[in-house]
Each structure stands twice: as C-alpha cells, then as structure tokens.
Design brief:
The chain is built from eleven helices and five strands. Helix 9 packs antiparallel against helix 10. With about 230 residues, it is mainly α.
C-alpha cells in the first residue's frame, strides 16, 4: 500500500478522540503489515514534530512508527533525516526507561533506540522473539528447521513440529552475561535494570549456543536468527 497523498492532512487529524483510528490508518498507509516503503520515510518529519511537541499526537505511537521506519534506513536516508532521528532518539530513550510493565512495548522501544542509533540488524524486528518466547531457525549443519524455545516453554531446541506432544529436545547453553559482546551486554544490562528479567534471560539464550537434536551440530543462536530474517 502507498501512503496517503496528503500526509499533512492525515497527521493533522491527531489530537482528538479518534486518535486510535487515525494511527491505525497511518500504519496501514505507511507501514502496512510492518513493511517500510520509500515513501514511509516522508512521515519522519511529522513523527519528529509530535515527539518535540510541535504537533498533536502520542509520542510513544510516533516513536514506535518512526523506529520501524528508521530500522530500514540506508546511509542516504540516515543523512537526509538526521535531524528528525536526532530528535526522536532521546524521547525513545526516555520512553524505554519508563517501560517497566509491558514486555512487548519494552522490546519494541529497545528496537527503536537501536534504530535511531543506526543499528540495522537487531533493530529490524529480530528482538521480538524475546517476548514471544521462541525463535525459528535452521540448523547450519543439517538444515533442519528448529524452534529455539525459552521462557514459559522451558529451555530447549525442539526438532520439527514444536507443537507435537513429545518433541525431541536438546538443552540450550545460555551465554554468561559477563562474556557477552558490547551490544548484547548493553541490551542485557538495560533489560535487567528495567526489571525485565525474562527479556534479560532470553538475551542469554539468543546470544548463547544450541545443539541440533537431529544431527548434534552445535551453533550460535544469534547467527542463525540473523540469517533467518
């Protein structure tokens, strides 16, 4: 889908009782089903105006939409919209600090902060398995489709259909937080300090290792997540 022809008119509808509907329509026009189009970037000045108080609308809604758009930015987009991204970043950080209750919102905002900082791997939806509790990856050795499950599911890599009554299980090896590289260590620290222990725990599995229950091949989970998205 293409964005509305008159973005100014569309965003001008915000600030009333129908904001939920307006945001829904904006998402459909600008980021339909989570996709980012070339014209989606035209919304960044309007979204930045919202977070800086220059236009009506909810800052969190604006940050979430802008974060998704920024996660798809290349160097040209990043340079063209540098002022808007610089305005959005501190607001995203503030909202992240305040997101102590809702796990999905915390993860989405974490991705937004990364996107505004210029990170283009984990900002692009790859952290969302942290609140879903699982990732689907392929074994790099035998190409079996695996579900890396943690959280309420337990901690294992089930083979094949993870919905079967008794899937084959292989233990996951979580990373030691003290040995994480700079970026995942920062994410782990941020989640821990915010009280999101399940997110912090999930990060140790995401950046840990797994053994394929089909071929016993050992692999780094995060590397397979990168390749599967």
């Amino acid at each position: 889908m293409r964005p509305s022809d008159d973005l100014a008119a569309a965003f001008a509808r915000l600030g009333g009782e129908e904001d939920g509907q307006v945001w829904s329509e904006l998402w459909d026009d600008l980021c339909h089903q989570g996709s980012v189009y070339e014209d989606s970037f035209l919304a960044l000045p309007y979204l930045a105006a919202i977070v800086t108080g220059g236009a009506p609308g909810a800052p969190q809604d604006a940050v979430l939409m802008a974060g998704l758009i920024a996660s798809a930015a290349d160097d040209e987009h990043s340079a063209r919209y540098a002022a808007e991204i610089n305005a959005l970043l501190p607001v995203a950080r503030h909202l992240l600090d305040a997101a102590t209750d809702d796990r999905p919102t915390f993860v989405y905002l974490l991705q937004c902060v990364l996107a505004f900082e210029g990170e283009r791997v984990w900002s692009a939806g790859r952290l969302e398995g942290l609140f879903e509790g699982e990732y689907e990856v392929d074994c790099p050795t035998c190409a079996s489709s695996l579900f890396i499950a943690f959280g309420d599911h337990g901690s294992f890599a089930p083979s094949g259909d993870h919905a079967t009554a008794d899937p084959v299980k292989a233990a996951l090896l979580p990373a030691d937080p003290a040995t994480l590289d700079a970026m995942p260590a920062r994410l782990h620290r941020t989640a821990t300090e915010a009280g999101h222990e399940e997110v912090a725990r999930g990060l140790t599995y995401l950046f840990g290792r797994a053994t394929c229950p089909d071929c016993a091949g050992d692999f780094v989970v995060s590397q397979q997540v990168e390749e599967s998205h």
